[in-house]
Amino acid sequence: MPDVGTDRAAGRWGEDSSLALRAVEVGYGERMVLQGLDLEVPRGRFTAVIGPNGCGKSTMLRTVARTLRPRAGEVLLDGRPLGSWRSREIARRIALLPQDPVVPEGITVRALVARGRHPHRSALRPRGPGDDEAISRALHATEVDDLAELPVAGLSGGQRQRVWIAMILAQDTEYVLLDEPTSFLDAAHQIDVLRLCQEMRAEGRTVLAVLHDLDQAARTADHLVVMRGGRIVASGAPGEVLDEELVRDVFSLRSRIIVDPVHGTPMVIPLSRDRGASA
Amino acid sequence: MRSRLVLVVLLAAILVAALATLAAGRLGVGPADLLDAARGQASTRTLFVLERLRGPRLLVAVGVGAAFGIAGSLFQTVTRNPLGSPDVIGLGAGAGAGMAMTTLLAPGSVPAPVGAVLGAGAAIALVHLSTGLGFASPARVIITGIGVSAMALALTQYVVAVALRDASSQLAGYLVGSLNSRGPEHVATIALALLLLCPLVALLAHDLRQMDLGDQLADALGARAVRTRSLAILLAVLLSAAAVSVSGPISFVALAAPHIARRVLAAPGPHLTASALVGALMMVLADLLVQQEGPLENLPVGVITAAVGGVYLGYLLIHAWRRADA
Q: Which residues does chain B have within 8 Å of residue A87's beta carbon, measured at their own beta carbons?
């Protein structure tokens, strides 16, 4: 794959930029999903968020992008609560690709990618500075240039996911949040998407992605955040975090962990469901 | 550039229909008379037709059609549903009921447009409360809206029947909408509403265009989905109420104009300007029909839009069901 943009040195983003969650509580109605969650998002790294279904991974991403508001605690961008930022300013710093985004009827690839420029435009300035360059760079980096004039609805799942990532790239943000970007893709297309994540990190962006596949997370991310029951139970380098005890406690799964002979990262061999542990 | 061409063609069509409206029939004011009027040499008869009879009526038709077109486009965009239109969900009927109640039961209490806004506001509040989910589920909004619309029409019939007894032409004005005997005050109301509200719609359009990506992505792009939707509905309520207050609850223009605009532009998304022009053209053509001698003469214009629009609504429903089955 072509480089996402060598013209851009890491450190293009402000030196003192930071993104953190402090004692964040989020709930839907009666049900509390995040219960006092603390997280310092590691800058310039590719962080994978893992955890069992319903542990609050998606909710955490949505809270960081302020599509959900916390009931208590706060999300701090550059040390300032997200609530004090204007929506467009946040959208110029943080991009979020939801798990199941809606494709607008009849939209072409180029038009969808151009949507990523929204926060750089305004009602009085319908074309933002650098629009064309950002859009063509995003189309090129995700290798969808040839599809640019086609309707998105007619694309395969793998192509469509690359188009969505192109939209996020066109948004040109320092922080990129992806909610299960590899689900529903075949193995080769999963690798495409993960490589794009690594390239984004290589050019200085901070990537935070919810991933389901533990081996994949360990292989591609350089930082793991493990969640259970609305809290973070472990975080650190994959080789240090992922062990048999953690897999049993968090996923209620008895497993053997071996070292991937090619990548040198941990691989989880599932053995049996652990009925004794509370999930 | 197709879109620019379509807008020019629409404008030309409105102009032609407007000239035809002025020129047709016994009291017609032809192009020669118009030129005289422009030079200040018009006959008294021409002036009377232009200033008192057909002129105001024509301008009201254009303004009302544009207001309904924009309101419909706003609604369909934020509900993400082709049937999410102010007339289908009871806004028009509610505005009509509010106007009937304030002008007929308590004459002189508040001006007609205020009654219309109150009625439309009550209708939308009722829809919001009855769905249980606010405006989040378009299907529920439409189903409860049809119920609210029926209730509002029944209320209007009752109020008009009690207050006016045998005045069937006035009943029609409140129930289906009419442009008969409109004057400069009506032109002023709809023109003022459009002048005040269109700039706000234009400002909102920027964020509105992201609504078809779903709330989550619209939020993530900084388009503030909930706020944008609320403002769009508020503007649609005000535009509909203003239109209803001068023409009565004319149906199907708000529903059909955005669809037709999308069809002729052959592009997705809300087309506010094109919807406004298509709405204006629909109204001028419908009113041209009822001003001609023959079986349709002097029918309330709302009867025409309802008859044409009913067929169109049926077509949309069948089309939607076919797609759902496929």
A: 219, 222-224
Contact A102 B217 (CB under 8 A): yes
Between chain A and chain B, the number of residue pairs with CB atoms below 8 A apart is: 68
Cβ atoms A24, A74 nearer than 8 A: yes
Give residue limits of the domains in chain A: 19-273
Q: What pLDDT, on a 0 to 100 scale, did the predictor assign at position B181?
A: 79
- Say yes or no to pLDDT of A9 above 70: no
Per-residue confidence (pLDDT) for residue B85, from 0 to 100 = 85
Instruction: Name all domains of chain B by residue range, CATH numbers in brackets.
Output: 2-325 (1.10.3470.10)
pTM of the complete model: 0.84
Q: What pLDDT digit, counting tens, does each position of B46-88 carry? A: 888 888 888 899 999 999 999 999 999 998 888 887 778 888 8
A19-273 has which CATH code? Answer: 3.40.50.300
Quick check: B319 pLDDT over 60? yes
Which of B214, B222, B269 faces A91 most closely, judged by CB atoms? B222
Chain B hits for A116, Cβ within 8 Å: 221
